[in-house]
Design goal:
The chain contains eleven helices and eleven strands. By secondary structure, it is of the alpha/beta class. Bound molecules: 2-phosphoglycolic acid.
């Protein structure tokens, strides 16, 4: 059997997503490039890996077997990398870290301060939403994750390290800016621009309103905090975002925070990894550094 590790990576992504398009997007490849890699594996093993029924693709028996092996091989490679990092120690280690889109407003400061103390450490950073982070945890393909409340359904080690308040933002000339203790009912009459489904921010907002027995109906979806802030400034509606995203806009008086009853929605940040995971020296050192120094570094 003549198969490369690259081909196994492609196979794993197609099988997990059950979609050539999604796998191509995830791997930053074109769809024909993905199809070609799958075809080459199929030629090598002389069996089909996927079958198409209607618009959906399904794994064949051979596909299921190869999916299992491709996951296991990738896992082994990742473990080998961890062992090698172990041998190198903290001095020359590499830290693979995945963070929530919203954490991107503070995590680089912590990484920079850590790098000051460990000049030769290198980082690989993936910034994605909550859904993407859960995938990383499921695949166990990153050293640590920085995210909102981790799911109960996974066996994880999670340490809470900072508050994450979500606030209602408005353009500075909005009529509600001068009001205090605005009721939730009043908010329901406004148009909202919210983060995409699958983001932790969105889940928290939906939970908050459903706990009040209400639902925000008129809303636009945007997949980044930056896009939301721009849209709110432009007068497209109100937004609900983390305080961490607002440093510049508040300093320059470009957005206002509304005084709404029961707000802020209080979330927290956690540093998370899979239970039983063997942390490399650099990962353990970074985790300790973050827990000890974040408050001081960010002036919290
Ligand atoms: P998000 O994550 O960037 O996916 O919204 C932040 C959070 O979980 O609060």
């Amino acid at each position: 059997m003549q198969i490369t590790i690259r081909q196994l990576v492609v196979l794993e992504a197609v099988a997990r997503n059950l979609s050539f398009t999604k796998a191509a997007a995830e791997l930053h490849l074109t769809q024909p490039a993905v199809s070609m890699q799958i075809k080459q594996i199929e030629e090598s093993i002389e069996l089909a890996l996927f079958e198409q029924v209607g618009k959906k693709i399904y794994l064949t028996e051979a596909g299921k077997e190869m999916y299992g092996y491709s996951r296991a091989i990738q896992q082994q490679l990742y473990e080998a990398e961890t062992v090698i990092e172990d041998l190198k120690g903290v001095k020359h280690g590499k830290l693979t870290i995945a963070i929530a889109s919203t954490a991107n407003y503070f995590a680089p400061k912590i990484l920079a301060a850590f790098k000051d103390q460990h000049q030769n450490v290198t980082f690989s950073l993936d910034v994605t939403n909550r859904k993407g982070l859960l995938k990383h945890l499921d695949n166990n393909d990153t050293d640590i994750v920085i995210m909102g409340k981790p799911p109960q359904s996974m066996d994880l080690v999670a340490e809470r390290f900072m508050e994450n308040p979500l606030l209602v933002i408005a353009p500075i000339d909005h009529p509600l800016v001068t009001k205090s203790q605005i009721s939730i009912q009043t908010l329901l009459q406004e148009t909202f621009i919210l983060r995409e489904e699958g983001s932790g921010t969105r889940i928290a907002i939906e939970r908050f309103f459903s706990e009040q027995g209400m639902k925000l109906t008129t809303s636009l979806n945007m997949s980044s905090n930056e896009a939301i802030k721009q849209a709110v400034q432009a007068g497209l509606g109100l937004g609900i975002v983390s305080l961490h995203t607002l440093e510049m806009e508040l300093a320059l008086n470009r957005l206002a925070i509304l005084d709404v009853e029961s707000f802020p929605i209080l979330r927290h940040w956690y540093i998370v990894y899979r239970s039983g995971k063997r942390l490399s020296p650099v990962t353990a050192a970074f985790t300790e550094f973050l827990l000890k120094n974040t408050a001081q570094l960010l002036g919290q």
